[in-house]
Amino acid sequence: GFVIHLGAPPSPIAYYQQIGRAGRGVDRAEVVLLPGEEDEAIWRYFGSLSFPSPDQVSATLRALHPDQPRSVASLETSVDLRRTRLEAMLKVLDVDGAVRRVRGGWIGTGQAWAYDEDRYARVSAARASEQQAMRDYAATPDCRMHFLLRQLDDPQAAPCGRCDRCTGDQRPVAVSETALSAAQGLLSRPGITVEPRRMWPSELAALGIDLRGKIAADLQADPGRALCRLSDVGWGTRVRTVLRGPDGPLDDALLGALVQVLAAWDWPERPSAVVAVPSRSRPQLVASLAQRVAATGRLDLLGPLERTAPTTGAAGLRGANSAQRFRAVHASLAVPAAWDVAGRSVLLVDDRTDTGWTLTEAARVLRAGGAAHVLPLVLAVDG
Fold it and tell me: What is the pLDDT of residues 223-253, one digit of tens each?
């Protein structure tokens, strides 16, 4: 049988383990590794999950008291970290004796603790070295098994005589027209659902925001649509190129794909107006997106929402938690006084969405202004 490995694991050792497990239970297995540029993005993401900075650790220790347990949700209002990273950091601090998990959450022990920068730098360097070894494995002109065994410090490492480098047996890269057509049809199919936020972040009162529990139905967005996920191989590749490049108008190919998304959208009510999220990083792209969608659908173009206050740094910080991300955008948008959105179904457009809090805040002010429906439309969802 074949074991097709899509994408390169973070290290040759991990790859060796994975193909060993995948090949169990069969008399003979042929393993094919298909690395791609997406691997680099995956490695960068996991590299970003290194141990938090000294400032973030210090903020956590300052926020914890020896006799007043705090939940992780409560700590999110004091520490600018996503929950998974915050929980992982607390576990390390627990092992080091600086914090302790108790009933009701976490407490500080008061025990002296020093940030071991050298240790965390060594961990990051080890990860980078492993990733480079995986690149070297894919490119090596020598025996692949020999390469893997040397990574394991095997003193008996020797050429295997079976891999493509040893035998010269290269798998053909040609693809039949039928298979190519089927793959292209699948990858070029645009459109995914963007589910709206239905709950406010926990403990917003600690940030001076009087919102809690469920988001009222009359303040919510409807389920929206995105052209793709940024990690997708098809449209994701095209959108990644656009978002990495200089700001500019929407191109015809992306507009055509968005038209397909709109045509397949089973919205509760056809929108009559288009509103843009005011963009600081790609104003031309978002403005063009709104203009071209409005013109194509013969909808009223209202323009961008009014920015009433500058958003804070957490708005664009991918590693921030929900409480910090929402605080960054809360009360920063408003419906211009000249608009009348009462009873209207509004198409809300932006270039991308990550946590969804910007769309949530934009929908909140539009619904509070009387909009009957807010239908988010973005080029891409992060991840």
Answer: 999 999 988 878 888 999 999 999 999 999 9
380, containing H or E segment: strand 373-381
Which runs of consecutive H residues, i.e. helices, occur in the chain?
Answer: 12-22, 38-47, 54-63, 72-75, 83-95, 117-139, 144-151, 164-167, 177-187, 235-244, 252-263, 283-297, 322-329, 357-368
324, 76 contact by CB (below 8 A): yes
What tokens appear for 305 in the block?
């929402």
**Token pair listed for 200:** 């406010």
Q: At residue 108, does pLDDT exceed 80?
A: yes
10 Å CB burial of residue 25 (0-12, 13-18, 19+) is: exposed
Instruction: Give 35's contacts (C-beta < 8 A, 6+ positions apart).
Output: 7, 8, 134, 138
Distance CA 6, CA 136 (A): 17
Long-range interactions of 119-123: CB distance < 8 A, separation 24+: 120/50, 120/51, 123/50, 123/51
Is 54 in contact with 117 (CB distance < 8 Å)? yes
- Structure token digits, residue 80: 């600018």
- Categorize the per-residue pLDDT at 254 as very low, low, confident or very high, splitting at 50, 70 and 90: very high
Q: Which two tokens stand for residue 263?
A: 């045509």
pLDDT of residue 305: 97
Q: Which long-range contacts (CB under 8 A, 24 or more apart) does 37-42 make?
A: 38/7, 38/231, 38/233, 39/7, 39/8, 39/134, 41/231, 42/7
Q: Which 3 state secondary structure label does DSSP give 125?
A: helix
Strands 306-307, 333-334: pairing is antiparallel
Cα separation of the two ends of the chain: 32
Coil, helix or strand at residue 274: strand
Residues whose CB falls within 8 Å of the CB of residue 331, separated by 6 or more in sequence, listed in order = 308, 309
CB burial readout 94-117, b (16+ within 10 A) else e: eeeebbbeeeebbbbbeeebeeee
Tokens of 103: 């009933």
**pLDDT tens by residue, 169-188:** 888 878 788 877 777 666 66
Using a 10 angstrom Cβ sphere, with 0-12 exposed, 13-18 middle and 19 or more buried, the burial of residue 126 is exposed
CB atoms near residue 378 (< 10 Å): 26
Q: Which residues pair with 224 in a beta bridge?
A: 194
